[in-house]
Amino acid sequence: ALAAEAVGSTGLLARRRGLLHRHAQSPIQTLDGEPCFEGRAMRNQLRSNARVKADIVEVYSFVSETCNEGIHNIQCVAKAQFAEYPRDWLKLCEAKMGPQPTNAVAVCTYAQQVLDYVKPRATAYAEPS
After folding, report:
1. Which of 124, 66, 67, 58 is nearest to 89 (CA)?
2. What are 95-123's pLDDT values in tens digits?
3. What is the pLDDT of residue 25?
4. Could you tell me which of 85, 28, 87 has the C-alpha nearest to residue 62?
5. Scanning 28, 53, 110, 128, which has the fewest C-beta atoms within 10 Å of its C-beta?
């Protein structure tokens, strides 16, 4: 009985080794260099960038149109372009910080500078060549 167990366990070990050996020889599948994967990832990133750039243009166009009313906070206007959702961030920041009518000229100047920089890039992201 003991010999049968030994043979049985040896046979089991041999089968396991065979499975492990076959598994070790199978090639590892990676996504390196797969053009479809890379293309999809790039397309998704470009779409995300285009959305953010379009939001920045929309937000700073609004700020530029209303900057002389003194309703904006310069600190919020300066940082909104770096938020993932600039419109929502600006609204929340200005609600918390309050308006700064004395900084209206600085707000107008800054908003126009951001628009001058971002607007051509937003167009380029929306219409990749």
Report:
1. 58
2. 999 999 999 999 999 999 999 999 998 88
3. 59
4. 87
5. 28
